[in-house]
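Write out this protein's structure.
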Amino acid sequence: MANLAKRRGDKVIWEVGDLVAPYIQSKWKRAIVNAIDTWILKRSDLVVTVTQAMYDCEFGKLVPSSRSKQIVIENRLPENFKSNAGATKTDVSIPIRIGWTGNLRNPELYEPLLEAIGKDGGKRVALEVWGGGLPLEMAKLYSQKYENIKIRGTYREDPESLRAMHESVDVQVLLELADNENVRVTVPNRLSHCLIYQTPLIVTKGTEMARRIDELGMGFAIDPLTVKWDDVFDQLADGQLMRTWLSNLQKVPDKLRYLDSSPLINAIHLWNGSKS
């Protein structure tokens, strides 16, 4: 809408949280979306994406000249969470509490995990489910069958609620399919949550999330379609890997944990300065 109403001298910022085109199967519908995106790109003065990979895979190809007006502002929490942040765990205890959190999705990927955790019986692992969505009903059925699977309800994205959730889990699992371009190139706010409250992550290999987690040494990546969960449980319950992750999380600098909006603020100051 801002692009439609743009007048001479106006500045328009286009902030992109998710890519739309990867979800469209029809070639001609995707072509229409690309044409609209190209038009918006050309008329925008600044393009904000949550990762560099998101820009490179889509917008940089549509309009290469837009690189001069592109910035990255990652999907992180603001610094007012800092007073409530820090490690929610200091060592490893059995069972390892695995967290399935957020807007619960991909039940076909999580059902083998639920089954494996249930059969483990709490000897190595347990599952804490925090969140909502259609797969919650499936999780409830498993919680009724297995004592080491618990439904904890929903949570808010505020310091106290997030801390309470992270205190109840030792490692989070985020399973998606990397054949979706949007999944491959974005970084969900789950990463920021886990960095702030120092919780390791297990994610899908072949994604920007996997690259970042490997770089920070705070978890590992798996193929959710072929993973052998018993092997994962053995690695977690051994303790050494978890201790290494927890140690690495303590060393992450704050500049990687919290929102940095300075690139956008600097651009706005530059615009304002040019008008005065």
